[in-house]
From TrEMBL:
It is an enzyme of class 1 (oxidoreductase). This is Malate dehydrogenase. Catalyzes the reversible oxidation of malate to oxaloacetate. Residues 5-143 form the Lactate/malate dehydrogenase N-terminal domain. Belongs to the LDH/MDH superfamily. MDH type 3 family. The active site is at 176 (proton acceptor). The gene is mdh. Its EC number is 1.1.1.37. It comes from the Bacteria. GO terms for biological process: lactate metabolic process; tricarboxylic acid cycle. PANTHER family: L-2-HYDROXYCARBOXYLATE DEHYDROGENASE (NAD(P)(+)), L-LACTATE DEHYDROGENASE.
Length: 320
């Protein structure tokens, strides 16, 4: 059986990390595409030179030519610019929208059967635009945000409770911005919901509130520390989990930015919701029940996403 082919569109900080993890996990052969000459080639060669030590046989190739992504099974898109301190994800909109157009056309021409995972920010608007520009089926174009936001939430909770990160489950829904919705009621330690853990005296409501707030600003916390760019290890790990669930048809239930067609009373927009991710891409959207507070937070988050989509249409009326 031939190896799978993973195309990484953008070979910057996240792209390079994606290449390293994908190769180490032998998810397939890896093509790094970037407009910057030498960067994808250099990163590909450097990673390949580590393969005899770590013992994996994925091949890596760097390129500036879309022809090299031909027939890719998975395309992970990080092309564009990242945040610097003082910038919100939304500040990236104008530049990254143009990048999505060229990337969408490249994927449409050379890898129309791939699962496309978008990471470029502002995420929900960019994945929406990328799906339109590429013309690929909606179930095959997804955005990576919820797994990352949930991982941050899970990590902070595991620290608070001094338990394994593996014992903590969490869902963060909504748009990938400061309005995201960490769902406390659906977050658990070994199946015990957080509100019960507060009652059991494991933590206080104030501490949970502070963790929710830290989760919402998790990306900004990293930007503030790094100063020269944004997070890349955890975003890359999150997208690899999505790629793996697709390639192996694992049908993980994970929060992703998915195109809604009536679920949650919404249509024609991408927002973070739990999905079943298998060989058909987004196989099912899970509609969880919100209480009134959660519904209000979700609606706020959706309104922020819609605002960004409208800004995109102003910049590129072909999206309207
Ligand atoms: N086509 C292909 N690659 C491009 C294009 C393009 N049109 N425009 C820019 N790039 C490349 C850049 O040359 C750079 O190598 O995209 C890469 C982006 O890498 P970084 O600047 O290191 O950014 P990174 O940290 O990887 O984040 C990428 O993901 O999380 C989001 O907000 C983040 O939007 C940003 C994206």
């Amino acid at each position: 059986m031939a190896r799978k082919k993973i195309a990484l569109i953008g070979a910057g900080m996240i792209g390079g990390t994606l290449a390293h993890i994908a190769a180490q996990k032998e998810l397939g052969d890896v093509v790094l595409f970037d407009i910057a000459e030498g960067i994808p080639e250099g990163k590909g060669l450097d990673i390949a030179e580590s393969s005899p030590i770590d013992g994996y046989d994925s091949r890596l190739k760097g390129t500036q030519d879309y022809k090299d992504i031909a027939g890719a099974d998975v395309c992970i898109v990080t092309a564009g610019v990242a945040r610097k301190p003082g910038m919100s994800r939304d500040d990236l909109l104008g530049i990254n929208l143009k990048v999505m157009k060229s990337v969408g056309e490249g994927i449409k021409a050379h890898a129309p059967n791939a699962l496309v995972i978008c990471i470029t920010n502002p995420l929900d608007a960019m994945v929406w635009a990328l799906q339109k520009f590429s013309g690929l089926p909606e179930n095959k174009v997804l955005g990576m945000a919820g797994i990352l936001d949930s991982a941050r939430f899970r990590y902070f909770l595991a620290e608070e409770f001094d338990v394994s990160v593996e014992s903590v489950t969490a869902f963060v829904l909504g748009g990938h911005g400061d309005t995201m919705v960490p769902l406390v009621r659906y977050s658990t330690v070994a199946g015990i919901p957080l509100p019960d853990l507060v009652e059991m005296g494991w933590t206080s409501q104030d501490k949970i509130d502070a963790i929710v707030e830290r989760t919402r600003k998790g990306g900004g916390e990293i930007v503030g520390l790094l100063k020269t760019g944004s997070a890349y290890y955890a975003p890359a790990a999150s997208a690899i989990q999505m790629a793996e669930s697709y390639i192996k048809d694992k049908k993980l239930v994970v929060p992703c930015a998915a195109k809604l067609s009536g679920q949650y009373g919404l249509k024609d927009l991408y927002v973070g919701v739990p999905i079943v991710l298998g060989a058909d891409g987004c196989e099912r959207i899970v509609e969880v029940k919100f209480n009134p507070d959660e519904k209000e937070m979700f609606d706020n988050s959706v309104a922020a996403v819609k605002e960004l989509m409208e800004a995109c249409v102003k910049l590129d009326p072909s999206l309207g």
